[in-house]
Amino acid sequence: MRVLVTGAGDYLGRRLLEALHRGLPPGSSILGLDRAPQPPLGGVSLRAVDPFDAHELAETIAAFDPTIVFHLAALASVAQSSETPSYAWRAELLGTLNLAEAVAKTRAALVFLSSTVVYGEAFREQARPDETVTPRPDTIAGRTKNACEYILRDVLANAGIKHLVLRPSNYIGAGQSETFVVASFAGQIARIERGLVPPSLEVGDLSAGRDFVDVADVTAACLRVIGQIDDLPNGGIFNVGSGVVTPVAEILEMFRGMTGARFTLRVSPERVRAAGVRSEGCDSTAFATATGWTPAIPLSRSLCTILSEARAQLG
């Protein structure tokens, strides 16, 4: 088994490489690609490759000769995409097109980690859409992800290369950037506990609801795909989430129950997004039926792990 992962330096990419090292059969080869050099990772080869350099990317992929490719390279967050729209479009589309053309010359299957953000306005009619719901993306992140799904479908189908699309919901886990709400709460609480900052927690829109799933469950879903790639439909699209929409306010209250620290709340304008969809979830029944995968990590355990890691980071 020879597995290649793009976006090796991203949060999910690094966790997937670690999971592959633990979960693949002995003798398997793993290569992680990223636009920047990455810290060493045991059992994994890492290489810096410019995704905009089609020739270098194609040469690297051809030399490795992967069995399966996981395409994760992307801007990490909705906010980041909105702040740099031109780069977001260039990075997502050109990088994906170059990758698709390179993989089209191999025997590999390709799995694209898209996102449930592609559903966008469709969430207003259905808070937990399944894959039959037509995406109506309302953010740059959603539109670029959706466009990449079309790029891969067109390029790879024409070349006879099998591909799948996974649409994870809001994955969370220890070590995630504080640009994400759960990590932000944990980091702030840890600093308040240590007396490093005043006892005031900066928050955004607490009424928003999201489908939070542990990053380890997402990487487990990827491993399921590897084991069952021959049985899954070519061009198949699958949601990957908990199936539960949890209000951000409830996340905050769960954290309150894990700390003795007391703090007030302060709404920070920069943490409040423009008016949009309030409730975003997904129905992962199709993926569970096809692979037997179900989320194994309860939300409470994920939050406890994230807060513990935030505390540990303070030494």
Descriptive report:
The chain is an alpha/beta fold and 315 residues long. The chain contains ten helices and 14 strands. Strands 3-2-1-4-5-6-11 form a seven-stranded parallel β-sheet, sandwiched between helices. Helix 1 packs across helix 7 and helix 2 crosses helix 4.
Count of DSSP strands: 14
Summed over residues and divided by their number, the pLDDT gives a mean of: 94
Helix fraction, binned, reads 40-55%
Tell me the overall shape: globular
Main beta sheet strand tally, sense and closure: 7 strands, parallel
Q: Indicate the structural class.
A: alpha/beta
Low-confidence stretches: none
Computed over alpha carbons, the radius of gyration is 19 Å
Strand order of the largest sheet: 3-2-1-4-5-6-11
The SSE order reads: EHEEHEHHEHEEHEEEHEEHEEHH
Q: How many helices in DSSP terms?
A: 10
Q: Name the beta content range.
A: 15-25%
Distance N terminus to C terminus? 39 Å
Keywords, separated by commas or semicolons:
single chain; 315 residues; alpha/beta; seven-stranded parallel sheet; three-stranded mixed sheet
